[in-house]
């Protein structure tokens, strides 16, 4: 309805009622106008009716929704199922063109506008979350691993002699395979044990740089968010080293946007040294379906190079999902989620510490990890090595998802590389342990129920062990 249609409507329905309806419509349009003008996440979240009005307005700008459109090409936004069309708000053409994921599509103006706005809103959220000096980003319809691969492939053209990627060890397959898939040789640098924490061995990293030669190194591939007892890499020192030896630096920030500590590390690293790009997952940070990531950096031209490296058009679904989510939450809503994540981290730590003490275990001291926690399982290991792995199975069958049980001595071959002590980020970590994470969206009820079920599982395993050995069960109160 435009002003002309509202004027005509006054001949059908009382003008005072029409004016009231027109004002209501303008209140929606005012929010849309501010989004278009500022390109920032609104402070307060929008209603679903405003979001749907906006998406429908975008959809009618795409050629597949033109009333008189006659498509004779091979890709005309045709959809056989109306259910699929509604699921995507009839935004069918995707984003980008064959040569650039950020390019404008002439026959998909609405989808192109959606893409540009999403990237702008996400950039605003990255700044809000702590990386104030980030200059450019884009949403890519691939998860974190493949997005890292895209970054490495882009660097290949800048460093044709680059063969190696220096990688402080983190036992997570996708980031390792991202380097292999891109055609490079990962140089695994073992972490050092400081108290209970596994931290970056800066001396070992520098030795590898000098041994291999800076010109032969594609980049340093560091990590922020990770499972305890590993903690975020020493980003400031790595960034300084990257600048010193003129080596690119790519950061795997998979679920670090939700952590002010991880984002501060990136901000400081860029300030004192060199960070070329940092990559983060959409689903882990913004509670949307799996399938998207954000590639961001401090040099706009380099981020644009990465976007141009993506071959072909791309799905708009991740962009649509995160835009809807951020418009729903607003900046204030997202800040509230970040505050709740910190609060739940403290609560989870308290409850795990209490439970650990009741079972003769302890909460490992990992203060540099702002998301993940670890509880020792030395007592279970002493009973039987099988009891440790059995605990993981018991938790899963009792619908406790996300908890990781790490036994001693695991070995795993990943893309031709043998990892000893796999899942523990170290060849010889001294304790078996259980991981739990306070990620964005976790609730107090999640923590309480997890602790209750974990307590029952531990008691059950101890009872089984005592029955086998014939020794009495010591009394503890949890």
From TrEMBL:
This is O-phosphoseryl-tRNA(Sec) selenium transferase. It catalyses: O-phospho-L-seryl-tRNA(Sec) + selenophosphate + H2O = L-selenocysteinyl-tRNA(Sec) + 2 phosphate. Substrate binds at residues 97-98, 105, 313. The modification N6-(pyridoxal phosphate)lysine is found at residue 284. Pfam families: SepSecS. PANTHER family: O-PHOSPHOSERYL-TRNA(SEC) SELENIUM TRANSFERASE, SOLUBLE LIVER ANTIGEN/LIVER PANCREAS ANTIGEN. TRNA binds at residues 271, 398, 463. Its main location: cytoplasm. Homotetramer formed by a catalytic dimer and a non-catalytic dimer serving as a binding platform that orients tRNASec for catalysis. Each tetramer binds the CCA ends of two tRNAs which point to the active sites of the catalytic dimer. Gene3D superfamilies: Type I PLP-dependent aspartate aminotransferase-like (Major domain). It comes from Oncorhynchus mykiss (Rainbow trout). GO terms for molecular function: O-phosphoseryl-tRNA(Sec) selenium transferase activity; tRNA binding. GO terms for biological process: conversion of seryl-tRNAsec to selenocys-tRNAsec; selenocysteine incorporation. The record marks 74 as: May act as a substrate filter by repelling compounds with a negatively charged alpha-carboxylate. Its cofactor is pyridoxal 5'-phosphate.
């Amino acid at each position: 309805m435009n002003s002309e249609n509202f004027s005509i409507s006054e001949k059908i329905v009382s003008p005072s009622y029409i004016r009231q309806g027109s004002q209501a419509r303008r209140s929606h349009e005012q929010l849309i106008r501010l989004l278009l003008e500022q390109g920032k996440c609104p402070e307060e979240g929008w209603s679903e009716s405003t979001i749907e009005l906006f998406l429908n307005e975008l959809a009618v700008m795409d050629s597949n929704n033109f009333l008189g459109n006659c498509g004779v090409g091979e890709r005309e936004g045709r959809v056989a199922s109306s259910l699929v069309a509604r699921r995507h708000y009839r935004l069918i053409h995707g984003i980008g063109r064959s040569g650039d994921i950020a390019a404008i599509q002439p026959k998909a103006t609405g989808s192109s506008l959606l893409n540009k706005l999403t990237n702008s809103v996400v950039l605003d959220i990255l700044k809000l979350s702590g990386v104030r000096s980030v200059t450019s980003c884009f949403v890519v319809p691939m998860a974190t691993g493949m997005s890292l691969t895209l970054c490495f492939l882009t660097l290949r053209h800048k460093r044709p002699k680059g063969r190696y990627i220096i990688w402080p060890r983190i036992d997570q397959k996708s980031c390792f395979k991202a380097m292999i898939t891109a055609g490079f040789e990962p140089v695994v640098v073992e972490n050092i044990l400081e108290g209970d924490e596994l931290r970056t061995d800066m001396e070992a990293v520098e030795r590898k740089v000098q041994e291999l030669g800076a010109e032969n190194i594609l980049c340093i591939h560091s990590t922020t968010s990770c499972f305890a007892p590993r903690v975020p890499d020493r980003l400031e020192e790595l960034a300084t080293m990257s600048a010193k030896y003129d080596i690119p630096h790519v950061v795997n920030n998979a679920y670090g946007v939700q952590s002010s500590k991880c984002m501060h590390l990136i901000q400081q690293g860029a300030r004192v040294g060199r960070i070329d790009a940092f990559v983060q997952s959409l689903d882990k940070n913004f509670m949307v379906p799996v399938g998207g990531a954000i590639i961001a950096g401090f040099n706009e031209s380099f981020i644009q190079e990465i976007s141009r490296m993506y071959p072909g058009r791309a799905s708009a679904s991740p962009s649509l999902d995160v835009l809807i989510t951020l418009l729903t939450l607003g900046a204030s809503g997202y800040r509230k989620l970040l505050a709740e994540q910190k609060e739940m981290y403290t609560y989870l730590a308290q409850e795990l510490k209490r439970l650990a003490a009741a079972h003769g275990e302890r909460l490992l001291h990992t203060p540099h990890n702002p998301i993940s926690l670890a509880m020792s399982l030395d007592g279970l290991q002493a009973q039987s090595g099988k009891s440790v792995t059995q605990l993981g199975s018991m938790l899963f069958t009792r619908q406790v998802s996300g908890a990781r049980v790490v036994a001693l001595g695991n070995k795993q071959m990943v893309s031709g590389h043998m990892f000893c002590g796999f899942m523990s980020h170290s060849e010889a970590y001294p304790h078996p342990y259980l991981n739990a994470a306070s990620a964005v969206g976790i609730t107090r009820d999640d923590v309480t129920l997890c602790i209750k079920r974990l307590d029952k599982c531990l008691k059950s395993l101890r009872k089984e062990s005592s029955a086998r050995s014939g020794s009495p069960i010591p009394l503890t109160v949890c």
